[in-house]
Amino acid sequence: MQTRLEAVVVPVSDADRSRHFYRALGFRLDLDVTTGDGSRVVRLTPPGSTCSIMFGSGITTAGPCCILLTVPDIEAARAELVARGAAPGPVREVPTGVRAVSFLDPDENEWLLVESMPLNRP
Question: Which of 13, 30, 80, 92 is the most buried (most CB within 10 A)?
């Protein structure tokens, strides 16, 4: 069976605030709909990614999550996050030996950016 990760559900308390936050980071807005029962689904895609995030009302009751993104240049990625209004921590080396930086969204979901690293895949 061949699969592809399509979207990750991110728990948020305010869909409008989160939509604005992620749009300011350069995420592409793919969908923002309200269903007949009043539930709302917002879908955004990070620049250069084939996997999206989804949030809204009536989607999940889960607590904060951690999402990992890879970037080719960690210093440039951190500088862009700062320029776009995020508050990333310092660049650090993680146990796998790669450099990483993290930041929180308004709902305490953690985003971990790591420099691209080769994966050993069968």
Answer: 80
